[in-house]
């Protein structure tokens, strides 16, 4: 017998190679075990291991005990329960104990149909200890922490952390940590201190299960897989969470911050509704809200997701939100009762817009408002709604909605004109009396915005009554441009171009200019496909304007659009020549000469570019950025003194413009004049305090001077203002690289 044991303990070279191969395949073996649904399937996964000589199996088990990961433990527990060899089952158990000593535990349970040969001691079975969740459901994302106690005398702990995104990604992140109770408590305490403004509250296992199921339904609806670590450890999650027998009580808590103000509740409701977080929107409604339409929460979510699948809501934009005085009760009440009634009831109005496709299902949503204006190119709808809120269990909830946009269209022409006039007069009064040093300047700025936006909704209603009144349409366009609402302005311009023949060429040209501005807006946000689309629309509009009215402005604008798009420079130049032949006025001539200079500069014809720029400066010395352009060309032509003078001239005209400071910095540093570079940047910071661009540039100058401490301090100051701009990030990378040397 002894000789037999010794013989069996010897592993041949061939068997050793198979052991190494199976060890390398342990993660795949574990995945196959996780996917098995019966004992027979699990045993089939282990067939290659079971067919090896006993000595080879023992070698594999010892090797697995040194792999400190859950997959190794899962393979070992499968062997422990399913191996036909008793000696192998015992050795697998020993290997599991070794892993437990390293705080590594199985995350999967074999699907055995009989009592396993060796059972794990009950003292090692995990039991739910405690759970926590961030009370911030209104943000669309929460963090869930679940803890189990296990191991000898339940001194060890297993912690599962989930980050759930209810807007799009469902189970966004997942972490599993095998540790001890002291470390769990320390981590949770640290988390409490790090969660600024967010409360960490208790969660039962039943409540956690509900939250996870909703997050997983988001994954399914959006067609996005849960986080890879969650998928990998799904057997563990199933065992500990979804298949747990005693999950405790689900108290029905929403985990929404109970301290939200009424305007915050409304803004959250509209935003969540637009982003598809329909569970949150349901929870923000009062229990007797008419908007629930008698639906249970799951029914509401299902109905709204069906609508979203057809409507494709996207790119929500916020206009204004404000709390207004609640309507007085129709019946007289004593002051005590009246005051109590009003204090427990609030009304909030909001202006907002959303891109969506019209669908018949919109009629099934009780809270779906009417769009006061629709821009067909993008499907953007503008809405104006108000909400009545009541308090439930100490938190504000929405009881009723009014479609203010639809209501405005029911008003008479005289009433609409009266309200528009009142808003215009109040805005004019505020602007005339504005003082940037007043402590309530922000309050007045917000009032100007909501009055102007609300006036646009009255404009929309007035246009319904007076569709052929050009002045009404023009006023709406001017208001939208004043607010920087480019898409809305384009919608008004298109209506004017479509309905009015007078000055149609000018309107089309302005439409093209506004479309180009919208193209730049999208380009800055890396929405390149849409940016290119609107750039093409802009060029088409200007070409159409020239077909209607052949004039200087049309040729000049078209030349600039072609140049910006990287189009045919010869065509752009031809349009400029046509514009110049039409006897332009002074400001037009300066624009044409500057554009000629741009084309020459693009062609690397520096002398010709300089001549055009200088000609533009002669025509109009204050022409926008002309001295910067002159200075840049002069620097490239090595006319350094002239370049310095040109940049200084630019600063005289526009002391708050950053480009001249940056150009002078480059000029001085290239000449090794670092003190002058520091001086010009410090001068720029006196005119532009806390400019992150200038601070980052000054940091780079100090870095070139070898003053790493001062360079770091300046960069940190820039990062406090805006850490995301390119020059700040580039300087941080350079500083980090220097520090590593």
Give the low-confidence spans: 1-9, 114-122, 328-333, 335-341
Number of strands: 10
Strand percentage lies at 5-15%
* Largest sheet composition: 5 strands, antiparallel
The whole-angstrom Rg is 35 Å
Q: Count helical runs.
A: 34
Helix proportion: 55-70%
List keywords for this structure.
globular, five-stranded antiparallel sheet, disordered N terminus, alpha+beta, 741 residues, 59% helix
Question: What does this molecule look like?
Answer:
Helix 19 runs antiparallel to helix 20 (470-483). It contains 34 helices and 10 strands. The protein has 741 residues and is an alpha+beta fold. The radius of gyration is 35 Å and the shape is globular. A 5-stranded antiparallel β-sheet has the order 4-3-2-1-5. Strands 6, 7, 8, 9 and 10 form a 5-stranded antiparallel β-sheet that branches. Strand 3 (156-165) and strand 4 (170-180) form a beta hairpin. It starts with a helix and ends with a helix.
Record the SSE blueprint.
Blueprint: H1 2-8, H2 13-24, H3 26-35, H4 39-45, H5 47-50, H6 54-64, H7 70-82, H8 86-101, E1 127-134, E2 141-150, E3 156-165, E4 170-180, H9 181-194, E5 200-202, H10 205-222, H11 228-232, H12 234-242, H13 262-275, H14 278-283, H15 297-311, E6 314-324, H16 335-343, E7 345-355, E8 373-375, E9 380-392, E10 395-403, H17 404-408, H18 413-433, H19 441-465, H20 470-483, H21 486-499, H22 504-524, H23 528-548, H24 552-564, H25 569-580, H26 586-602, H27 606-619, H28 626-636, H29 640-653, H30 659-670, H31 674-687, H32 692-704, H33 708-721, H34 726-740
Antiparallel strand pairs: 1-2, 1-5, 2-3, 3-4, 6-7, 7-9, 8-9, 9-10
């Amino acid at each position: 017998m002894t000789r037999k044991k010794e013989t069996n303990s010897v592993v041949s070279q061939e068997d050793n190679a198979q052991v190494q191969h199976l060890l390398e395949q342990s993660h795949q073996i574990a995945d196959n075990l996780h996917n098995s649904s019966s004992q027979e399937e699990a045993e089939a996964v282990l067939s290659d291991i079971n067919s090896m000589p006993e000595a080879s199996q023992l070698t594999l088990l010892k090797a697995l005990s040194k792999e400190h990961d859950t997959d190794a433990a899962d393979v070992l527990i499968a062997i422990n329960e399913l191996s036909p060899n008793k000696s192998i089952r015992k050795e697998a158990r020993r290997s599991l104990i070794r892993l437990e000593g390293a705080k590594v535990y199985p995350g999967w349970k074999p699907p055995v149909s009989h009592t396993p040969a060796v059972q794990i001691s009950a003292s090692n079975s995990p039991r739910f200890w405690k759970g926590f969740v961030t009370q911030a459901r209104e943000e669309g994302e929460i963090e869930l922490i679940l803890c189990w106690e296990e191991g000898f005398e339940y001194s060890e702990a297993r912690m599962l952390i989930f980050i759930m995104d209810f807007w799009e990604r469902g189970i966004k992140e997942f972490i599993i940590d095998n540790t001890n109770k002291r470390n769990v408590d320390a981590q949770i305490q640290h988390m409490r201190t790090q969660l600024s403004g967010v409360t960490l509250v208790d969660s039962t296992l039943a409540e956690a299960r509900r939250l996870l199921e909703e997050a997983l339904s988001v994954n399914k609806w959006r067609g996005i897989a849960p986080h890879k670590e969650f998928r990998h450890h799904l057997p563990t999650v199933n065992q500990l969470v979804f298949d747990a027998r005693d999950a405790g009580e689900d108290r029905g808590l929403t985990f929404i911050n109970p301290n939200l103000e009424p305007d915050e509740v409304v803004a959250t409701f509209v935003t969540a509704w637009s982003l598809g977080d329909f569970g949150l929107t349901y929870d923000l409604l009062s229990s007797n809200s008419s908007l629930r339409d008698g639906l249970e929460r799951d029914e509401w979510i299902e109905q709204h997701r069906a609508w979203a699948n057809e409507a494709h809501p996207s790119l929500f934009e916020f206009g204004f939100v404000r709390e207004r005085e609640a309507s007085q009760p129709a019946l007289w009440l004593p002051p005590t009762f009246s005051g109590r009634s009003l204090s427990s009831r609030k009304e909030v109005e909001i202006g907002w817009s959303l891109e969506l496709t019209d669908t018949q299902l919109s009629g099934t949503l009780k809270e779906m408002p009417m769009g006061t204006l629709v821009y067909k190119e993008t499907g953007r709808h503008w809405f104006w709604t108000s909400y009545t809120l009541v308090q439930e269990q100490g938190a504000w909830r929405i009881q009723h909605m009014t479609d203010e946009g639809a209501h405005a269209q029911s008003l008479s022409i005289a009433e609409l004109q009266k309200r528009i006039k009142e808003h215009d007069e109040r805005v004019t009064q505020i602007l005339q009396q504005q003082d940037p040093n007043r402590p309530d300047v922000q309050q007045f700025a917000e009032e100007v915005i909501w009055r102007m936006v609300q006036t646009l909704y009255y404009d929309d209603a007035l246009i319904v009554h007076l569709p052929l009144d050009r002045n009404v349409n023009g006023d709406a366009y001017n208001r939208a441009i004043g607010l920087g609402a480019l898409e809305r302005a384009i919608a008004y311009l298109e209506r004017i171009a479509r309905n009015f023949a007078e000055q149609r060429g000018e309107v089309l040209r302005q439409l093209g200019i506004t479309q180009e501005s919208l193209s730049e807006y999208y380009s800055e946000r890396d929405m390149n496909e849409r940016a290119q689309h609107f750039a093409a629309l802009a060029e088409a509009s200007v070409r159409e304007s020239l077909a209607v009215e052949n004039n200087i402005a049309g040729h000049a604008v078209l030349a600039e659009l072609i140049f910006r798009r990287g189009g045919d420079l010869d065509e752009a130049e031809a349009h400029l020549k046509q514009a110049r032949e039409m006897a332009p006025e002074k400001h037009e001539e300066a624009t044409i000469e500057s554009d000629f200079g741009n084309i020459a500069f693009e062609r690397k014809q520096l002398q010709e570019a300089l001549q055009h720029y200088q000609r533009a400066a002669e025509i109009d010395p204050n022409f926008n950025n002309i001295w910067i352009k002159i200075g840049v060309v002069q620097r490239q032509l090595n006319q350094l003194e002239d370049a310095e003078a040109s940049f200084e001239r630019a600063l005289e005209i526009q002391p708050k413009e950053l480009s001249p400071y940056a150009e002078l910095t480059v000029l001085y540093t290239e000449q090794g004049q670092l003190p002058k570079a520091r001086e010009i940047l410090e001068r720029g910071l006196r005119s532009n305090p806390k400019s992150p661009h200038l601070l980052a540039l000054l940091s780079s100058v100090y870095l070139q001077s070898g003053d790493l401490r001062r360079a770091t301090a300046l960069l940190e100051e820039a990062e406090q203002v805006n850490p995301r701009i390119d020059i700040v990030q580039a300087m941080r990378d350079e500083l980090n690289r220097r520090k590593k040397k």
